[in-house]
Every structure is written in structure tokens, then in C-alpha cells.
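ASSEMBLY PREDICTION REQUEST
Request ID: AP-0331
Submitted by: J.K., bench scientist
Number of chains: three
Total residues: 1025
Priority: normal
Notes: Please return the full assembly, not individual chains.
Input sequences:
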Amino acid sequence: MTDKSRMHFDRRTILKATAATGAWLAAPALVRAQAPAIKVGILQPVTGALAQDGEYGRLGAEIALNEINAAGGIKSMGGARLEMVFGDARSTPEGGTQEVERMQGEGVAAIVGGFASPIVLAASQAASRYDLPYVCDVGVSDQIIGRGLKNTFRFGPGFGTVTSTAIENLVKLNDAAGKPAKTVVVVHEDGLFGSGMAKLLQAKLPERGFEILETIAHPTPSRDMSNVALRIRALTPDLVIPSSYYAEFVLLARTMQQQHIRPKGVYAILNGAASNFRFVKESAEAANLVMDCNHWADPRKPKTAEVRAKAEAGGRFWLYNTPLNYSCVRLLADAIERAGSTDRAKVTDALAASTFADHIMPYGPTKFVNGQNTGAAPVNTQVQNSDIKVIFPAEFADAKAVFPAV
Amino acid sequence: MKTAMTQATYWPILLVGAALALLPLVLTTNATLNFLTFAMIITLAAQGWNIIGGFGGQFSFGHAAFFGTGAYAMALLQVRFAINPWLALPLGTALGGCAGGIIGYLSFRARLRGSYFALVTLAFAEILRIVANAWGFTGAAAGVLVPLRLDPVQMQFNDRRIFYWLALLLVVIVLGASRAIMRSRFGAQLIAVRENEDAARALGVNTLVAKLSALIISAAITAAAGALYTQKFLYLDASLAYGSWISVDALLGAIIGGPGTVFGPLIGTIVLLGLGEVTKTLFAQLTGGALPGVDLVAFGVLLIICVAFAPRGVIGAVRGAVGARSATP
Amino acid sequence: MLKLDIFLSGLANGLLIGAVYALISLGLTLVYGVLHIINFAHGATLTAAMFAVLIAHSVFGIDPYLAILVLTPLFFGLGYAAQRFVISPASHGDDSNGLLVTLGLSIIIENALLAIFRSDTRSIDVAYAFSTVEIGNLFLSLPRMIAFAGAFAVSLALWLVLARTDTGKAIRAVAKEKAGATLAGIDVDHIYAVTFGLSAACLAIAACLLMPTFLVNPRIGNSFVLVAFTIVVLGGMGSIAGALIGGLFIGVVESLSGLYFGESLGQIGIFLIFILVLLLRPTGLFGARA
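STATUS: Completed
Returned structure:
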């Protein structure tokens, strides 16, 4: 039984695992069961600081693999099943690299995942040494693409795209409401994506007619956001633009609620909580009318609801990592299907030429240029009536924006 | 082996070094090689810690300060000043030593000891981390990316074994240096300071100079480890360079192996990292990542068991088992 | 320059968060003062206590403040057992081994919580979570004010235990002179375990007071560890007053330097002050001479 998604504690598996560990310690690649399974490396940080994102990413990959296998596997290779070789990146680049080496040793056809930019940078580079195709799921750093690595593909948007889309949509939103917002306070986490975001905003927002009153950086983790709320209250901006991880934004939103701070709008970008159903459920009042510009599944596709149902069946919530990784694995499977083999050069070429459209992200057909999927873009969401609705772009929207929020 | 470890010769070091060097020719998986390379980098950091923590008895919780300095030096000298990595490595090592000198002078001059010294080093490391994350020169939050150039002149090798051998070479050199320190007067002074600082001072040892010298050497060695880290992963940010993870790993590796011994950091690091890899791989086979955290629980349990059954480190346990004298050398 | 009312708000915020820091540091300083080990499992124990509050509220419907009555003895017992049956036997009386064992415990606790509860960050919903007390034009969070009072109450209670009860006197005896205490007939192992239990009990109370305005995930306690260590050393290891005053002090320093220099860079304020104090007073504000 080689389905890795279930826990087995029967003796055979334990013996096999022990033998496998022994083999790892002493010898080259393991010899697996005889079925012509195609191994797919799934790399996610499921322990450590990024465990939540890793968990939901892994879930998406697992759903996709099970679905593909249930539908008959890779038909051009005789119905070969896809087998997950899972690697815990332990939320560090060295952890990710070690898992890439292990997956390479096990003969995977490609690797999907990574989540965090430092992990993706290191892991995709390690994979490139073997010409092993690497599909990055989230990792928004613009440095990931453009290192000249032919094996690296990013299905989702980089933060350059996300930020410019976010600014465009903000301008549209503001114009449509009669330009109620002029002054802005930017709150960002002081790591890679938050700081990069803030820099781009500082450069672009004034050009579009907004005035940035202040840019407030905060560490992750932050034990208290009271002072950030205090400064927002003192500045009374029309708009707050927060770009933080989950806990810090929840703390900020709740503190703002408690301090009766109500700007005309909270317009988050790549925020860890603003389009997160748990946040909406647990902090209903603080979450109400918060907007986000983030990765999100395409609400129009019927498959999205199916995948969502599978993901939530286990008491989990619906996070963007799940549909994004689901789509990445489907993309890879399609490439293997078209390549008709697991030869790395062929799979890489198939990925590069991909026009895959049967995914559940709002991207349209895939088109990779230098490894970046050029159709990838974020969408704008807003929390309305304890639900998360898409408000921009119009073709995916299922609700109208409520702005200003007063 | 029984007498080799207690005899003050360098043969055991050369033998161990040769054995480790031959390993990649026997174990051919890249996963193992990658693991060993990383283990050598951490071993080097632990060896650095051992000089001040093991020999000198001054526990530092902030060796990340030196690791990160070496790492950033290696990255920035290449990226901003186009200096060749073979030159950047010794420069980074020296810079780390300077950091050790500054931190050591301030701390030891103020007579900080024990946990107070430990926490001060931690505070320095944290300050460096926060500054590095905010300062444009160090790349701020975006970090520093060292371009991929597979060229031996740029210290990036097509054959991964070469980098492993490079790291191993540094480890062996420091093994030799540790042995030399142990046999020297300086080493005796350090041990005297460790056992009873006031008595040592009464006996005429200049404890400030002894501790300061030890910290400078310690910092330089750990900085070299940081430089190697940069060169292996080619990407660095403030949390990787100055994060508490490396302070903990360096400390753990040295203590588990046996603090104040020559081979302690090497053995301890391999045991520590090895246990982590084994539990991770075992549980990945069993659960396919469906139950994250279980492998680390197993690791924690094994760690406690390790300490319970080898309270003087692995080397202490081996000595005890073999019946040799268990007094510190 | 900041306006006065912002400065006062920052001061107030600093005191409120400082009280939380103090609560968390009390147990740590006690353990160090008596057992002379640095308890690396402190953060994980706080996390476990916060999960306990979560369960008490979401499964049993117990309000966090009421949960104090249940969780304090529970965690006292857990702390006692951990020291008596795990830490002490495994470390064979060696301080650096104690460090390793508590580190191992922290890995176990954090990852067991991860395996059981998964990695999601959760909060509890209590009616008074957003209640405020208006002082001047400051809106002060009511649960935070309660926690502030709680810090003083717990410090006082702890001080009373140490000063007035027989067990407390035994603890102080062991802290001062272990060999002498043994000769006087005190069961040192028991006292060590009691101290550890008290430390865990303080964390349970801290968790109950913190949860209404905070969040919980398997790593949440880690974010307080560094600050707690800093406060314990700053205040003087083993000093209750040091932990309380040190906590408030660090809270204010963090808050004001965050306002002046930005929340990220301002974190330096804590460590700079810490280093400066130690360079001037190497045993901390209230610590005994080394």
C-alpha cells in the first residue's frame, strides 16, 4: 500500500519504514513497490513558524493527487498513479534543501511547493542542479524568477504584480466611490514581503493621488499591536493598508475595534488574516468590511466548490494555500501527461509550453515567460456578512464593494 | 581508541578526518552528502562555541552574533565589493573575531558571569539581527542573494563533495587547534577560569585576557561557519544569519557531545542533527506529513533520553563505558 | 517629537503589556533563583496553559477568569511532576544538562500541541474582550487592566508564600544554601519540584489573564521567551520584585522606543537598556551579589 496520505501502524509498514530508514542511512535510492507510480515531491513547511501555511498547502496537493489518481492517473503513461513524496521543510531553507536532496534520491519527477521565499530560493536552486522541475506555489519574492534557472516555475503572482494590481484596484475602488480616500497609513511586517510591499507603495501611491501619512513596520511575531493602533488613531487616515501575517493582523484589527478606530477602509495586501475564514468567524465585528488583495480561488468554477468541500471536511478552514497548491499539482500532472514521460527535460519543456486552464485560480490559461505565469494575478476580496466575497476584478466578482465603510 | 583519546597526540584527529573524507566515496546519496555538509558547518559553529563555553566555562547564548557577522561578511564582500570568496572567507572570520573582541571586552570588563553573560550575548545577537533587518547595506528585509556561479574560483563547485571536503578541512583544522589549546598553558588557564575564576585570579591568571582571547578565537571559528553557510545556500537574511536557531544548535552540539572535549562538538552535532533527520524520515514514511509534529516529539524524547543516559556528553559516556578515567582532560 | 497624549497612551500601553511580561517572568525567576537552571520550557508551558484556557472555554464553557481556579492547581501538579519525574532524574543534577532537558521538553510540548491542535492560530470570544475603561481620553482595555492588577496580586501572593509559609521558607533556604538546607532536614527534591510547580501555576494564571485579548497557536509562548529571560536577568535572578518591576520597566521601554523609533527598530530599545543596566549593575536591578 503506497498511498502516503493515510496513517498506517501495521507491522509491515513499520518494518518497511525501519528498513527504509536503514537503507537511507547506507545506500542509494530506495527500491519501491512494482507499480509504475510516478513520484511527485511535495515540499511544505509543516513544522516551525510557517506550519499553518504548510499544512494547508499540503492539503491542496493531497486533494489534487487523490483526484488525479481516482480519475485514472496519467493516461499517456498507461494510467500511472501519482505518488506523493512528502518533505517537511521545517520552515528553514536548509530543511527545504535537505528534503530536495532526499526527493531527488527517491527519483521524483518534479517538486511542488516551498511556500516561503527563502525556502523556495534555496530549494529551487538545489533542484536546478539536477534539472529537476520545481513549481513554486506561493513564494512572492521577485528574486525567485530571474535567476536564470530553467527548472523553476511560479504559478502564482510575484509581489511586484500583486502590489501593482492592488494599487490599480484601489484607484478604481476609490474612483468608483467618488474618491473618499486620500490619506493612507501603511502597516507592514518587517520581513521580505512586507518591506518590499511598503517600498513599492511609497513609490507608487503618491503618483496615483494618495498621501502616505506614515509607514509603520512591525516585527513578526509581535506581542502587542496597541501602539500601532495608537498611531493610527492619532493620524486619522482615510485608509489603512496592512500587510502582515495572521496573528499580527488579528491583534491589530481587534485592537482597532476595541479602540473604536474606524477608518473609511482597511485595504490589506497579501495579508495573512484578511481573507481567512477563521478570522472572519472568530472576530466577526473586527473583520467586517476588511478588504484584501491576495491569492484567491476562482469562485465561478464549479470545481472550486468541490475542492473547498473536500478541504473543509475535517474541520479545516479554506485558505488560499489549498487551491493554489491544488492547481499547481494539476498543472504538473497536465505537463507530465503531455510530455508522456517523466524525463526531466521533457517535463520542463511541457511546463514551459503549458496552456493549462483546468485549474481553480482566477488566472486564465497558463502562460510561462521565463518561469513566471504571466496570467497570474491576485483578486480583491471583502468580508461582508461574515463571508468573504470577491469584489474585483468584475469578471470574478460575486459582490459589490462596500466602500467607504462608514 | 581507548588510549588514543586520552593521549595528547594528533593522530586521532587525522584518522577521524580521513574517515570522514572517505565517506562520500562510500555513501553515494546526495541526501547524505547534503546532510553531512550541513553537519560540518554546524560542527564548526559548535567548535567555536566550545572554546568559550566548553573550555572556558562561559556559556554564550548569542553565538549567532558571530555566525551572522561571518555570514554577512561573506555575502556582502562578494555582492557589494566584488571580493573573491576565497578572500572573503578569512576576512569574514577576522571580522567575527573582532565582534567577539568587542562583545567580550564589554562583558568581561563589567565582570558579567554565568547566566548574566549568557543573556548579554543573546542581547547583542538580537540587536544585530534587528539592525541587519532594517539596514539597507545588509539588504534589509529582502536579504542578500549571492549569484550562482559554478566556478571553483568563486567557491561554488559542480561536484558537491568538494564543498563538503572544504568544510571538513576547516573542522579538522579546528580539531587540531582545540587539541593544541588543550595542551597549552592558555588552555590550562581557561580550565582554571572555568573551574573557579576567583581562585584562578588569586593564582595570578589574568582572567580577563584569558576569557577575552578565548572569545575572540571562539567568535572567529563560528564566523567561519557562518561564511560557509552563506556559500552553501547563497541566500541570507537577518533571521538566518543572526537568528537564535544557530546559537541553540552550536550550544547543543557542543554540550551533547561533551563540553570541553576536542571531538565533542563533532560527535554532538552529528548525533543532534542525525536524530532529527532519522525521526523526520521515519515519520514521513509512516504518515506522509499528515501528522506534523510527531517526529519532533520523538526527537525531543530521544534528546532527553540522550541526556539522561549520557550526562557528561557522548564522549563522557564512551569514556565511562570503556573504563577510562572520566576526569576532564 | 510626540505629543503628550500620545506619550501618555504609549506609557499606559507599556505598563499594561509590561504587567503581562511580569506575570510570565515571575515563574522563570523563581525557578532560576532556586534551582539555578534556565528553564527553556517556559515558553512552551505558557503555550500549553493558553491551550488549556482555550479548551476550558470552547469545550467546557468556563470563563478564563474562572478557569484560574481550575488551571492553577492543575499546572502546579504538572510542573511538580515534570521536575520530580523528568527533569531532575534526567539531568543528574548538572545545570547544563538541565538546560538540555528543558529544551527537549519544550520541543516535546510545542510539537505535541501542534500534532493535537494543528497549527491554526485561534482566539476565544468573551463578552468583555473589547470592553474599555476611559481615563482622560485614553481607552484602556478592561481585560488588560485586570491583568495589570493580577500581576501585582500574583506577585504579592508569591511573596507571601515565600515569606510567611513554611514551604516558602524552605524554598528560600534551599535557594540560599542547598547543603545547609539538606542538613536542616529539608527535602530538596520536593522543594525543587514545588518551585517548578509554582512557576507553572504562575504561567497558568498569566494565560488566563492574557487569553481574552490574545491568540493561541503552538508557538505563541516562544514570542515571550526572549523578553522573559531579559526581564529575569534585568530584575535580578530570583527576585520577585525584580520580575515585577523589571517587567513593567521593559514594557514601558519597549512601548516608548517603539513609538519613537518604530515598532521594528524599537525592539532594540529593550536589548540596549538591558545591556546598559548589566554593564553598570552586573547582577541586575535587584539581584544578589554574585
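REVIEWER COMMENTS: The CA atoms of residues 47 and 221 of chain C lie 5 Å apart.
SIGN-OFF: pending second reviewer
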